[in-house]
Amino acid sequence: MRVLLTNDDGVWADGLQALRRELLGVPDIQLVVIAPDGNRSAMARSITTRRPLWVERVDFGDGTHGYATDGTPVDCVRLAKLGLVEDFEAEAVIAGINHGSNLGDDVTYSGTVAAALEGVLLGLPAIAVSQQSANREMDFRLGREFDFQVAAKFAASLVDRLDEVPLPPGTLLNVNVPGAHPQGVSVTKMGKRIYRDELRLKAEDGERRQYWIYGTDHGFHDGEDTDLAAVAEGRIAVTPLHFDLTDVAGMDALRQYDLEHMVAPAAQEVDG
């Protein structure tokens, strides 16, 4: 299997390197690493369209190499798809291991999850892997200490068995590993965050002001079978995600409203 490994913490991040080493030990995997040249956390599905991308080959010091770019995590997946590496066409996209959890609503901000999602949009199976720090914080803040061994081994085993995982097309796996030794694995749904953001003035310079706009100690709704609840209980959370954001019930509700009658008045205003 041809596997693309990327992340949003940068090509030299400990999480990516731990997973890279573990994947090298999986038989029959051809591994290519394309990752940002520095931290691109919380960039979500950002892409680079108004300038060319720099790409540099990097030597990992163990006889293998990868590629670092000044683009985003999604750019990394696009680079692979468009033929950056000769004779390599990815059959799966793995993103991580992220330094810090990507749980609940936070997945919409995550560059790690976005890279995996790009793989899904290209028709490839994809996995996003994130690791809670030893502090076991329940938001996206980074702790100072991480132990990636369990997460790397679990993710590599999952990649090795991708052909056996009954995933519908267009679905990615969002994996979150607790900071302590896992007590098991739960298949979960996305939980709901409680954000406590605030606007806080940091500095002033004449008419210019500098603000912090994010708070701390984000909470979560203690819903049943959620990724947040599983990690809080010390379990690995495996959450299937897809990109179809359509609200089917909302479609049914809108069909009950006569939108057609709005077309003629709108056209008359334009013509007049």
TrEMBL record:
<feature type="binding site">
    <location>
        <position position="98"/>
    </location>
    <ligand>
        <name>a divalent metal cation</name>
    </ligand>
</feature>
<dbReference type="Pfam" id="PF01975">
    <property type="entry name" value="SurE"/>
</dbReference>
<dbReference type="GO" id="GO:0005737">
    <property type="term" value="C:cytoplasm"/>
</dbReference>
<dbReference type="InterPro" id="IPR030048">
    <property type="entry name" value="SurE"/>
</dbReference>
<feature type="binding site">
    <location>
        <position position="9"/>
    </location>
    <ligand>
        <name>a divalent metal cation</name>
    </ligand>
</feature>
<keyword id="KW-0378">Hydrolase</keyword>
<comment type="function">
    <text>Nucleotidase that shows phosphatase activity on nucleoside 5'-monophosphates.</text>
</comment>
<keyword id="KW-0963">Cytoplasm</keyword>
<protein>
    <recommendedName>
        <fullName>5'-nucleotidase SurE</fullName>
        <ecNumber>3.1.3.5</ecNumber>
    </recommendedName>
</protein>
<dbReference type="GO" id="GO:0046872">
    <property type="term" value="F:metal ion binding"/>
</dbReference>
<dbReference type="GO" id="GO:0000166">
    <property type="term" value="F:nucleotide binding"/>
</dbReference>
<dbReference type="GO" id="GO:0008253">
    <property type="term" value="F:5'-nucleotidase activity"/>
</dbReference>
<comment type="similarity">
    <text>Belongs to the SurE nucleotidase family.</text>
</comment>
<feature type="domain" description="Survival protein SurE-like phosphatase/nucleotidase">
    <location>
        <begin position="3"/>
        <end position="196"/>
    </location>
</feature>
<keyword id="KW-0479">Metal-binding</keyword>
<feature type="binding site">
    <location>
        <position position="8"/>
    </location>
    <ligand>
        <name>a divalent metal cation</name>
    </ligand>
</feature>
<dbReference type="InterPro" id="IPR002828">
    <property type="entry name" value="SurE-like_Pase/nucleotidase"/>
</dbReference>
<keyword id="KW-0547">Nucleotide-binding</keyword>
<feature type="binding site">
    <location>
        <position position="41"/>
    </location>
    <ligand>
        <name>a divalent metal cation</name>
    </ligand>
</feature>
<dbReference type="InterPro" id="IPR036523">
    <property type="entry name" value="SurE-like_sf"/>
</dbReference>
